[in-house]
Input
Amino acid sequence: MERFIIEGGTPLHGEVVIAGAKNAALGLIPATILSEGLCKIENIPNIKDVNRFINILKKLGIKTTQLNDNTVIFDAENIKQYEMLDDETRKMRASYYLLGALLGRFKKVVIPFPGGCDIGVRPIDQHIKGFEALGAKVELKHGIINISAERLIGASIYLDVVSVGATINIMLAAVKAEGVTVIENAAKEPHVVDVANFLNLMGANIKGAGTDVIKVTGVDKLYGCEYMVIPDQIEAGTYMVAAVATKGNVLIKNIIPKHLESISAKLLEMGAQIIEYDDSIRVIGEEHLKSINVKTLPYPGFPTDLQQPMAVLMCLTEGTGTITESIFENRFKYVDELRRMGADIIVDGRVAVINGGKSLSGATLKATDLRAGAAMVIAGLVAEGTTEVTDLKHIERGYEHLESKLRSLGAKISKSST
Ligand SMILES: CC(=O)N[C@H]1[C@@H](OP(=O)(O)OP(=O)(O)OC[C@H]2O[C@@H](n3ccc(=O)[nH]c3=O)[C@H](O)[C@@H]2O)O[C@H](CO)[C@@H](O)[C@@H]1O
Ligand SMILES: C=C(OP(=O)(O)O)C(=O)O
Output
């Protein structure tokens, strides 16, 4: 089994280049299904979820040409299939975007329920509510989602919860529907805006992405285009946290500072130094960190996907802080692993109380999900002695070259296959 072996105690120093955003790329790739021309996408992160999704598209009949590690041309002109029951589809969350994209293209789609990180129930009722409002019939049986429509007609849809997946999925289904669709209480995450920008470049008419009301006016046809995925907010945030945790000094390049504001604000509150440039950010850790309280919220709030790495950092502060997880009801499973390193964390429902000032000691840890994995790695970087992190498959879903990027910053991390 593959594992990371980490010798803790070395501050991170140097520069790191951030990859394209996982959650944006996972929306853009299925969006190419709607195009009748070639779509060239650059800055696609080379991660497991993305490669899995590209393979799913190939199985659907989409021609892909990989120009280099991070650039792919998608040609969906001859796609004929609207059903994808492959096991790979079950293994990732973002496969739910096949619903909106295939429904938009064929007015029919059949796929299994999606997978993804095990962090709570993760229903898709708001996606379904949206498709039904557009006139589709939805059947859920034996773990399979079967949706069909005679016609897709624009409608007004109020989301009961702010959902990234439902917002993007409804946009995908609505871009070629008849008339106007209005999504109210829409998610405002950078990747929602990225998918809307991409669709607009293909000829769609989407207004308001990035606000909580999105208006989609249906068009007949979408064409090819060239696009570049935005930088990954969560990967950047992970390196920001790692830099502060190790008391390092890291220049994080290829980022959009605006997307990192909620993270910068919390790190500044702890006492770290942050220097912003146009498309990079320098993060400098300090000897003493103040305790803080964090609450995860939809964008522009503090992202739930950085909650786990942040918890490790909060173990190193002076005093007691809290994390309130308001998005997913079961995202504290990794706490047991941190406790094995000496962390003092008490979880009560959606709140984790973190008593800082305890030194962490190396241990063998299991990456229980993607961001828990990132948290385990950061914990290993600051712990005394050796830490082993297993179950790397989760980490590989979302971090491009984590081990070599950290090594280039001076971290003592290696991968073992035994
Ligand atoms: C592939 C992808 O982009 N994954 C991201 C996406 O996941 P995902 O799209 O699954 O997350 P959502 O934004 O949809 O979920 C937000 C909240 O709404 C709830 N909900 C969602 C849909 C629904 O139909 N009904 C419902 O109740 C969820 O259980 C959760 O409590 O956004 C999350 C929140 O930023 C991130 O953590 C994930 O990294
Ligand atoms: C929860 C995450 O991913 P997914 O939605 O793909 O499971 C994540 O990226 O932290």
